[in-house]
């Protein structure tokens, strides 16, 4: 079973539409971190947000918002009023402890978002 | 302020050869991680270096090894290359603990023929 599941392989929307990217994770740990990264065609991953397992507050940053629900092990990402520049592959990642204060990250397979003008 | 710099950008190697990829972390960052990203997949964690030591390692064979230098830059070495090693290799750096996000480089595209 995958630790991080991004069920949507590709999403296509028209500019100004709202879009939600889903992320479901699996862990037995009570302490962990969740991340979202954006990978534009240039290749480098851009850090968007991180959440620790004890902070379930949703967050809004401009057109971006994140909904963290431990009850459903989900950490979904919504882009409001999408723009062409939002076109990229988005990755959700889970970082779990392996002991000694060390963590191992696991990325999902990513969701390719295409925003048409 | 330069971010994470990786070299070379592209590389073609023959099966069985050895390769060394290089990474300069973002200024002020002291922790470097390496990832392998196959086409259409998410990055897979190879290992992480801090204070010139390998601190965590993902599920990769011993053919993958690394090094971190006193100036925090890092190298990834892959021996006895296989066709399946063809991928984008990403280097990422950060300063601080696990709760901080990484800054990624643009990667080295390795093709093994």
Can you walk through the features of this model?
The complex is a heterodimer of chains A (117) and B (113). Chain A has no helices and twelve strands. Chain A is mainly beta and 117 residues long. In chain A, strands 2, 5, 6, 10, 11 and 12 form a six-stranded mixed β-sheet that branches. Chain A has a four-stranded antiparallel β-sheet with strand order 3-9-8-7, with no helix packed on it. In chain A, strands 1-4 form a two-stranded antiparallel ribbon. Chain A is globular, with a radius of gyration of 14 Å. By secondary structure, chain B is an all-beta fold. Helices cover 0% and strands 50% of the residues of chain B. Chain B is built from no helices and eleven strands. In chain B, strands 2, 4, 5, 6, 9, 10 and 11 form a seven-stranded mixed β-sheet that branches. Chain B has a four-stranded antiparallel β-sheet with strand order 1-3-8-7, with no helix packed on it. In chain B, strand 9 and strand 10 form a beta hairpin. Chains A and B meet through strand 5, strand 6, strand 10 and strand 11 of A and strand 9 and strand 10 of B.
Rg of chain B, Å, rounded: 13 Å
The percentage of residues in β strands of chain A lies in over 45%
The gross shape of chain B turns out to be: globular
Silhouette of chain A? globular
Share in helix of chain A: under 10%
* Backbone CA Rg of chain A: 14 Å
**Helix/strand class of chain A:** mainly beta
- The count of β-strands of chain B is 11
Percentage of residues in DSSP E strands of chain B? over 45%
Quaternary structure of the protein: heterodimer
Order of helices and strands of chain B: EEEEEEEEEEE
How many helical elements of chain A? 0
Mean pLDDT of chain B: 94
Helix content of chain B: under 10%
């Amino acid at each position: 079973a995958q630790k991080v599941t991004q069920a949507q392989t590709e999403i296509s929307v028209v500019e100004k539409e709202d879009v939600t990217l889903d992320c479901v994770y699996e862990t037995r740990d009570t302490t962990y971190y969740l991340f979202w990264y954006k990978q534009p065609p240039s290749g480098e991953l851009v850090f968007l947000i991180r959440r620790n397992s004890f902070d379930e507050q949703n967050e809004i940053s401009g057109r971006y918002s994140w909904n963290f629900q431990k009850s459903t092990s989900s950490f979904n990402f919504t882009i409001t009023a999408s723009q062409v520049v939002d076109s990229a592959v988005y990755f959700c990642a889970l970082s779990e402890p392996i002991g000694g204060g060390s963590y191992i990250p696991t990325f999902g397979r990513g969701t390719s978002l295409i925003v048409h003008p | 302020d330069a971010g994470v710099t990786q070299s070379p950008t592209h590389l073609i190697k023959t099966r069985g050869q050895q390769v060394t990829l290089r990474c300069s972390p973002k200024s002020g960052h002291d922790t470097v991680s390496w990832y392998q990203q196959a086409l259409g997949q998410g990055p897979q964690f190879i290992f992480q270096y801090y204070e010139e030591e390998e601190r965590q390692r993902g599920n990769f064979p011993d053919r993958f090894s690394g090094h971190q230098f006193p100036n925090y830059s890092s190298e990834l070495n892959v021996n006895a290359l296989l066709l399946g090693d063809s991928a984008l290799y990403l280097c990422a750096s950060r300063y601080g603990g696990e709760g901080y996000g990484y800054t990624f480089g643009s990667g080295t595209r390795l093709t093994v023929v």
